[in-house]
Amino acid sequence: MIFSKKYDNHVETVNSALEKYLNQKEVPQKIIYEAMQYSLISGGKRVRPVLCLAVSEIFNGNSQDALPFACAIEMIHTYSLIHDDLPCMDNDDFRRGRLTNHKVYGENTAVLAGDALLNYAFEIMLDACKETSLSSLLADKKLAFLKNKIAAAAAIAEASGVSGMIGGQVVDMQSEGKEISKDTLLYMHEHKTGALIKASVLSSALINNASDDELASLTEYAESLGMAFQIKDDILDVEGDSEVLGKPIGSDSGNKKTTFVTLFGIDESKNMLEKMTQKAIDSLDIFRENAEFLRKLAEYLSHRVK
Ligand code: GRG
Fold it and tell me: CB within 6 Å of ligand 1 — which residues?
């Protein structure tokens, strides 16, 4: 199957699962479902859940097992975007081609919509673990499967927290308006952007009982891909088309942020992007043709326009 068709299939799978999870309810707090849905069902690229499902496929695994985790990751990612756009953070008016959550629902509801998405993500992952244990009391194999799912949820929890995404966001806040070193820039992005991308890959590998060698290869893939993704994000903030991106360009310089482009220049940033993408591709050798989609995904992301 050609790459773009397969990518779209994964996105469709994720979108229809997300829609089911967020069926609006006729309850007094209905507005919170609407606010969650507004940001979640709104045309993001779905890179993280696609990674999660695609990794399952290289193990010939049933991607249905990874699906709740893929959806949970997208919910965590969306919560981080809602909170990042708030006036107390980056104060952005547009995201994914539409007004940001707080512009539509107000700051108080936007904060709660983010909180609720984060909470719901963990509810979904725990439900996925619960289902396994209930249906499998007698089978050792299924008990191991339950352990794998718990390990996947733990990896996602760690990646979202203070030693992952939130940690990176704190370093980002502390760095605003200051010149920061290359090491600080790398640390910030390994955590803020890289951690959740890595968890998207490794959670799925854990569910599929990956060996140590397979985990090591996928770790290198995910770390390189995460860094490449951020470098491209910084390039797009300078050279992108705001209509296509669905948000204004130049927000990094507007917020006085050090980026790959401000630190290394546009040409060197493009070189670094190419090197990181190649590193990601090369790290998948042990999977041979099974990892073809993941290789193409790395290439596609390095050429993305949004
Ligand atoms: C916990 C408040 C809080 C923030 C965490 C991740 C994060 C820090 C903030 C999000 C803002 C941001 C620009 C992060 C860098 C990662 C990144 C490039 C996000 C955009 O991800 P895409 O391009 O977005 O996958 P779509 O809309 O396609 O899902």
Answer: 44-45, 47, 77, 80-81, 83-84, 89, 96, 165-166, 169, 192-193, 233
Specify burial of residue 149 (Cβ count, 10 A radius: 0-12, 13-18, 19+): buried
State how far the Cα of 224 lies from the Cα of 258, in Å rounded to an integer: 20
State pLDDT tens for residues 162-171. 999 999 999 9
Please tell me the predicted confidence (pLDDT) of residue 250.
74
Tokens 């370093």: give the residue. Answer: 171
Q: 68 or 61: which carries more pLDDT confidence?
A: 68
Distances (CA, A) of 277 to 26, 115, 220, 227, 294: 46, 33, 11, 9, 11
Please tell me the residue having the least CA distance from ligand 1 atom 27: 44
pLDDT in tens, 3-34: 999 999 999 999 999 999 998 778 999 999 99
Whether the per-residue pLDDT at 299 is higher than 70: the answer is yes
* Under 8 Å between Cβ of 189 and 226: yes
The HSE-up count of residue 233 (CA atoms within 13 Å, CB side) is: 15
Token digits for 202?
């490794």
Closest ligand 1 atom to the C-alpha of 95?
A: 27
CA-nearest residue for atom 16, ligand 1, is 193
Atom of ligand 1 nearest to the CA of 230: 18
